[in-house]
Structure formats: structure tokens, C-alpha cells
Amino acid sequence: MESEQHGAPSNAALVIVDMQREFLSEEGMFRKPVDAERLLVPLEAMIAAARAASQPVVWVRSEYPLRADKPAPMRPPRPAGEAFAGVPMNDDHLASGHAGRPCCAPGSATAELLAPLKGLVREGDLLVTKERYSAFMGTDLDARLRARGVDRLLLCGVVANTCVRATAADAFFLGYAVTAISDCVGATSPRRLRDGLDAIARWYGDVRPSAAILTEARASLTGLGAGDSAIHYGVLSPALAATALARVRDEVNWRTMHHKGGVVPRGIAIQGTIAGGVEPIYRHPADEQPALAAWTPTADAIRREVSAFLDQPLNHALIQRYADGNSFINPHADKTLDVARGSAIVNLSLGATRTLLLRAKGGGPTLRIHLPHNSLFVLGWETNRGFVHGIRHDRRADSEKREDERVDGGERISLTMRTIATFRRLSDGRLFGQGARVKREEALDDAPPPADPLDEATAMLEGFGRENRDPDFDWEASYGAGFDALNFQILRDEADAAAEVDR
Fold this sequence. Notes:
Layout: E1 2-4, E2 12-17, H1 21-24, H2 36-52, E3 57-62, H3 115-118, E4 126-130, H4 141-147, E5 152-158, H5 160-173, E6 177-186, H6 190-204, E7 206-208, H7 210-217, E8 220-224, E9 229-233, H8 238-251, E10 258-259, E11 262-263, E12 267-272, E13 278-280, E14 293-294, H9 297-310, E15 316-322, E16 329-332, E17 345-351, E18 354-360, E19 366-371, E20 375-379, H10 381-386, E21 387-391, H11 403-406, E22 412-418, E23 422-425, E24 431-433, H12 453-469, H13 475-479, H14 489-502
Parallel strand pairs: 2-3, 2-5, 3-4, 5-6, 6-7, 12-14
Antiparallel strand pairs: 1-8, 8-9, 9-20, 10-11, 12-15, 13-23, 15-22, 16-21, 17-20, 17-22, 18-19, 18-21, 23-24
Helix pairs in contact: 2-7, 5-6, 8-9
């Protein structure tokens, strides 16, 4: 993964504490290890963004010698000044280090970084080995940071209530501005995570989700999926981003969509560019869907800004409203019958952060991509061919969610925008273009009558199924001849009629 970043402060350093097998794997000392999967995606995004901004990346590892007694407490001097008065320094426990049973023993396998992170270490990164809970005591970390002009720390790692907290406290008293990245910090339980982050927020700095940092920096994480997908943060102009959720919610005429006889669990609207007596048409597995409407003002403003950002024309949007975490999308590949071949499919998120899951069609690990407010996920053509994506139910209690996941009452609106190459002539409803049987509008009047709609709908649905399952999907074989069917309501009607006969 690679990243680009604009306008980020160059005097910050990303400090990653104790992301080691001892704490994050079953082979380590914890009966219930810290959930590494939750941390990896935002942490990788933060690492890539730091590199793009030429910010130091600091890898801190613990190596605790075998010792019966804890080492004597060590703390930095308390500076003079009102900002430091009354702020608690690390207590004797946090100012010390581990003793007793082996933990991160020097040279042991469990002292190594977690495997997915080892490959992210680059030449020029700062490598720090500590024997205490704090990354500053007994190390040269402070001197190395000052030599690089660093005065702000973006703090990640484990565990929140011990090493991360101890490091934050010492950093504060050494004069650094401290920001703990909430979704990049872990602990062995929600309570311990809360305790650690609350202490940092109260005394030593602030606590913010990665989305806030990445959005302010307008960072981009590229190379996702098959390599042609990306997530871009802070895409919309500040004025538009500040009001877009409420304006889209109020301007759009929300409808329902039916799939397999049931109501899709989201509010739906379809908008597009209507010009020259034609409108773009996007077909996917739905019995029926709302009619396309002209762009509402805010949706059109978003389309224009996103189109300029990507340098790609966009003429169609499926706009979806998720009321809360109970709204979801099952894993699927986008159906590209009508999408201009080779173009990207883009999703602009407004409101509460949800997590997109991206997984290869043949199986394998799932990539979790956070979609915060004002982020743009770009799904490349090859990624869509080889991967499925979706958004799961989020049944966690609000108390277990980050602030960016609770914002706006958990409501989220997404605009999935496409470059459509199939069109419907408004005068007679006939289709032409890439996904139709007739490829050019001027040939419509001389074209043969449409094929049998039942046969067309059946063949189109079979093609959609293959695109959903097959990582080697042959677009030309499945879609090249084109189809004139608009939706699958005829299949639903046939099934209902057959069921009536059987009664």
C-alpha cells in the first residue's frame, strides 16, 4: 500500500508501541491476546500517510530481561509551568517495567513484530528497544526525535493502559504534544482500552480516530485489492463536507428497492445526468428499483467535485441511506454490464464511519477499510473482477464504538457513482450503448424488435451470478451481445404465477 498526503504537519512522528507477537498472538503471554485485526487497517493507513508526509515512523519493541524484581521507577523531570501543575506522573508501576515470568524475552520469537507489520518497516525508520513500560525511559528516543525537530507524537500500539499510557505521560512531561489514535491502540478488554485512552485524554494529550487525522491531511491509501483501488480522505471542499449529510438527506426523495422479493434494508435513490432525450441506465440484481431522477443540488455538487478529483466523468449515482448499524450490504461484486469498461466505481461516504470488507472471490483474508465522513473509496476494474465487497451488520453497543462511528446518531449516506455507457431513450424506453443489444442510438430505429424479456432477464441474471463468483469473469462472453431487459420483475412474476398454479 502507498499513500499520498497534503498539508500534514512535518514536525509529527508516528510512534508504534509494542505491536509484538507476545501481545497480539495466541503464543504470547495473554490468555486473550489483543485483537490485532482491528488495529491493522487503520495502522497501515497511518504508516503510509506518515511516509507520504516525510514524518518519522518509530517502531518501539519491548525486550524484558528475565528478572525477579521490577526495576526502580524512572520519570522525566517535572517541568515548571501551569500546564504541568497537578498532572500525575507515571506511578511506580508504570514508571517501572516487567518482572517475573518471561515476556518478550530477548531473541525470542514472541519479541518480534507481528508478521504483517514486519514487512512495513523501512530503511530510515527509527527502531527503539525498551526494557521498561515507557518508550522514553532508558532509551535514546527523546534525543533522536529532537534531532529530527519532532514536537508532536501520533501514538499507536498496545497495551493502552500500560505501555501506551506510560509513553504518553512521559512524552507530555518531555514537552511533546501527544495524540493517541483511538482505533490504532489496543488492550486486552474494552474496559482496559477505555481506561488507558481516558487517562491520556484527561491528562496528557488528546485522543482522535485515524479518520480525523487522515481527513485533515487529505491522505490517500492506494494499491488496495488488485492494486487499482484506493481510499482517499478529505476529498470534498470543507464547506461542502460540513453540510453535505443534512442537505443530501433533506433533498433526496428516498424510496425502497426490492431484491429477491424483499425490501433492501436501506433508503435508496437513483440520480443521473439526463440530457439529449436520454438517461444513463445501471442494471443490477433487483426485482425493481426507483426511477432515475435528475441530480439534486448537493448530490450534483458532490459529483462535480469527485469527478474533478478523479479526472473521470460521472453520470450516475446510487444513493443509499443507512439509518444505523443494522443497515448492511451483503458481499458482492459490482455488475459492470453498463459501467464503462475499465472505469472506476467510486463511493463517497457521509456521516458515521462504517467498515467495508474486501475479500478475494476465491477466499482468503478480508481487508477491512474504514469509510469515514468525506472519504472516497475507489473500486478499480480489476479489483471488482477479482474481489467482493460488502458492509456487515454492526450490532455493537454505542459504548463500544468510536466517536466517528457514533456521529450523526450512526447515520450514514453513501453515493456510489459510476461512468455509465448504456442509455435509455426517453421517447420510447429503448436501450442503446455498451450493455444493450443496439450499441448506437442512431441504429435504434432500424433495429429488430427486442428479444423475449423472460429469456433476456434469465440470461442477464446468470451473467450477474458469474460476475459475483468468478475471479476470471469473461465480460465479453457474458455481456458482449447486450441485453434489453430493464430489471428482473418478470422473473419474480413468473415465480409467483408458478406458485399460484401449484396451490
